[in-house]
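Re: How this chain folds, sequence and tokenised backbone to follow
Notation: Tokens come from a learned vocabulary of local backbone shapes, not from coordinates.
Start of record: The labelled sequence and token lines come straight after this line.
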Amino acid sequence: MDLQLLASVIVTLFVIMDPPGTVPIFMSLTAQMSAKDRNRSAFQALLVATGVIVVFAIFGQSILNYMHISLAALQGAGGLLLVLIALQLLTGSTSGEESAAKYKNVAFVPLGTPLMAGPGAIVAVMVFVQQSSQLAEYLAVGLGIAVVLGSLYLAMRFAGVVQRVLGENGVELVTRIAGLLLSAIAVQMIADAVQAFVKGAA
């Protein structure tokens, strides 16, 4: 097991998917549900997010080859996308708090995707998979994804408890810190992409 890669996957996906920041959005979208329905929605959202992430992790290379997209281009685009997500986390400008009445099943949209398995998470997973070449690395990526998805499910499953423990200010603070870390990761991805382009041109 590549522990360094595992830690990198967990940290990157954790700040992108932002389990603590999911709590208030999940609570607002399921406010009219019973505890049983809320728990079922959390599980369904987990299944949807897992399916989306796994599909892109497995077929990501085929998609890139078909569209003639290089890994450096994917990293650069992913970095720019993560910058936008980081700015949303830092400024509090999120779109997840829309009325649940707009959706037939909030577990699929917007919880499963794009809240949990959004563009940022998809790009990050595809990049990690593209950079992996050994079984230990693939295992690290898979375990990292499972850990973050599990933390997301637990955050939704015990959303009421988490919100009471952290309080509104606590959730707000964690979200801002996540945005700061994510912005640093985004800059690093862009820098790596530029470096790859320079090497390729040379």
The mean pLDDT is 84.
